[in-house]
Design a protein that fits this description.
By secondary structure, the chain is an alpha/beta fold. The protein has a domain of 131 residues. It has ten helices and ten strands. The strands form three sheets. A five-stranded mixed sheet has the order 2-1-3-4-8, sandwiched between helices. A three-stranded parallel sheet has the order 5-6-7. It has a two-stranded antiparallel sheet with strand order 9-10. The two termini are 22 Å apart.
C-alpha cells in the first residue's frame, strides 16, 4: 500500500527509536527515497524494566496519526523484552536483533561473531556518549526503586570512600568487563569520541578497540527493504513476541 499523498513511489514511515540511534537514523532518512518521521525516545527507557518501557513505546505508537503513514518502524532490538507485546493498527516492522549494538554494527551476524569472540566488552558509540542517561538519576529506574543513589548522593551522606564502595557493591561495578569497543558509523565517526572512549578504557584498566560499524540494517529498515532474515513485518493487530531462537522476534496474536 502507498498513501495517495506520498509523491512518486515513496512511502511515509513513522520511526520510533531510541535516541542513541539518532545520528544514524537521520543520516539514513536523508539517504532514503521515503518520507521519514522520526520520533526519538529517551535512552533511559532501558533502565525502567520491560513493562514501563513497553508501555511508553505503546503510548507513542497509539499517538501516531496512523492514517498518514504506511507503516511504523521500530528502531529497537528486543531490548530485554522491552518491545514484547507491542502492536499497532497498521503494518509494523522491527529488526531481528537483541539490542542497538547490532544495529550500530550493521549486522546481527557481525555482532554475534564479535560478541562471541570478545566476551566482557563494554560498548560505546557517538549516540551512547551523547544521549546516555544514568540509571541512578531516574527515580523510576529499577536501581533507584531498590534504594540505590548516585555517587554524589552517597558521598554527601557517607563520604567519598564509602560512596565508591557502595556504588561498586550495589551495582556490581564494571568488574566483569575487560574491554571497551567504540563503534564507528558513517555519521558517528568523531575523533573526540574515540579518544574519550580510549581514555575511559584506560581509566578502567580495559583493552580498547575501535570497530567499524555501519548503517546497513537501519538503511534497509527506512528504505522498506524488509527481508524475513533481518526484519519482522507485523500485520495490523499482531503483537511482537520473543521467539527464543536465531530469529529473535516473532508475531503473536
Amino acid at each position: 500500500m502507498k498513501l495517495s499523498n506520498s509523491p512518486g513511489n515513496s512511502r511515509r514511515f513513522a520511526v520510533i527509536a531510541c535516541a542513541v540511534l539518532l545520528r544514524e537514523l537521520y543520516h539514513c532518512a536523508a539517504m532514503s527515497k521515503n518520507i521519514i518521521d522520526i520520533i526519538p525516545l529517551d535512552q533511559g527507557l532501558h533502565d525502567l524494566g520491560e513493562k514501563p518501557m513497553s508501555a511508553e513505546i505503546q503510548r507513542t505508537i497509539d499517538s501516531i496519526e496512523h492514517q498518514k503513514h504506511d507503516a511504523i518502524l521500530l528502531g529497537y532490538g528486543l531490548c530485554n523484552n522491552g518491545i514484547r507485546g507491542l502492536h499497532a493498527p497498521i503494518t509494523t516492522v522491527v529488526p531481528r536483533v537483541h539490542d542497538c549494538i547490532a544495529l550500530l554494527m550493521g549486522s546481527r551476524v557481525k555482532f554475534q561473531k564479535y560478541f562471541d569472540d570478545n566476551p566482557g566488552t563494554f560498548y560505546r558509540s557517538a549516540g551512547w556518549i551523547e544521549r546516555v542517561t544514568s540509571h541512578l538519576s531516574n527515580p523510576q529506574s529499577t536501581t533507584s526503586l531498590m534504594g540505590m543513589a548516585t555517587y554524589e548522593e552517597y558521598a554527601e551522606k557517607y563520604g567519598p570512600e564509602n560512596a565508591k564502595y557502595l556504588i561498586e557493591t550495589l551495582e556490581g561495578g564494571l568488574k566483569h568487563y575487560e574491554k571497551l569497543t567504540y563503534i564507528d558509523t558513517v555519521p558517528g565517526c568523531f575523533r573526540q569520541y574515540r579518544e574519550s572512549s580510549r581514555d575511559e578504557a584506560e581509566n578502567n584498566g580495559w583493552k580498547y578497540e575501535a570497530f567499524q560499524g555501519g548503517t546497513d540494517l537501519l538503511q534497509r529498515l527506512l528504505d522498506g527493504s524488509w527481508d524475513d532474515e533481518d526484519f519482522l513485518v507485523l500485520k495490523p493487530g499482531e503483537t511482537i513476541q520473543a521467539s527464543y531462537d536465531d530469529k529473535v522476534v516473532c508475531a503473536g496474536s
